Amino acid sequence: MEHIELIKDSYHDSVTLMLLSRNLSNLPGISHAAVLMGTSHNHELLVQTGFDSQKLSHSTSNDLIIAVKTDDQSALDAALLTVKEHFGRQKNENFSEYRPRSLSTAIKLQPDTSLALISLPGEYASAVADECLDRDLAVMIFSDNVSEKDELRLKLKARDKGLLVMGPDCGTAIIAGHPLAFANRVRRGSVGIVGASGTGIQEVSVTVHKLGQGISHAIGTGGRDLSREVGGLTMLEGIRILSANSETHVIVLISKPPHPKITKIVLTAAKQNEKPVIINFIGAEPEPIQESGAIPAATLENAAIAA
């Protein structure tokens, strides 16, 4: 049994929807469930999962899709009731203090804010990130579908202002002990991480925690940061921040192999840093890393153990 429900002009941030989707998928009798926005990318994900593409064709990126597969009508009823209760609770609770309708209002309510997490359709995310940087806020862009041109522009602007842009498509970060988006709650400690892989950051941070140590900061870069076009700007800024951070005693860098030109730039920055640097560039040759004075780690677990 396949149920697809479309709610027009009902935008919700993707972090909330992913958590709701996980809760629905864990209900008894549900084989697959997803609550997401009607972007073309999400259409493809649902079709790949076996949902009817024709039923999805009329949705837009501002429309909410509720998609459930089950062989049990009572399980479907329970899933839809869970969705209804979730959004009803959001509507009935008083979020006025915490959910302002503009960035200006948010900053007035929380004038000490120094970082903004952006979870919007990609077509809007870069403009909001621009406004945040203009207000001297560091930015974590959870959104994907931000152009490479906009990513480079935002990161250059942040560098000139002494700020940080994590992302776009940055799903994990831990800043001063605060897990953001899909980070794990781990103890604070002396290990700093800069990673172009959210799952890599998660594995290293959790393994460090299990080994009895902790994380000072874990800075996500987004998956394109170490491309030739973007130039590793966030990883370089992350190294600079952690190098100057008194809580951080050792630095771990995580990524798929960067562009060769960017690898040299990152290794130079690692060499100039006075703190020990452990590098897991997945599949990369260890010799250039060793020559830079850093410690190569063949796996994420090895990186955590070395840290």
Q: Your description of this structure?
A:
The protein is of the alpha/beta class and 307 residues long. Helices cover 42% and strands 21% of the residues. It has twelve helices and 13 strands. The strands form three sheets. It has a seven-stranded mixed β-sheet, with helices on both faces. β9, α8 (198-210) and β10 (215-220) form a beta-alpha-beta unit. α6 runs parallel beside α7 (148-161) and α8 (198-210) packs across α12 (300-306). The longest helix has 20 residues, at 73-92. The model has no long low-confidence stretch (mean pLDDT 92).
List the helices and strands in order: EHEHHEHHEHEHEEEEHEHEHEHEH
- Total helices: the number is 12
Low-confidence stretches: none
Query: Strand arrangement, largest sheet?
Result: 8-7-10-9-11-12-13
Please indicate the percent range of residues in DSSP E strands (runs of 2 or more): 15-25%
Q: Helix amount, in percent? A: 40-55%
- Count the strands? 13
User: What is the mean predicted local confidence, pLDDT?
Assistant: 92
Summarize the structure.
The protein is of the alpha/beta class and 307 residues long.
Provide tags for this entry.
13 strands; seven-stranded mixed β-sheet; 42% helix; alpha/beta; 307 residues; 12 helices
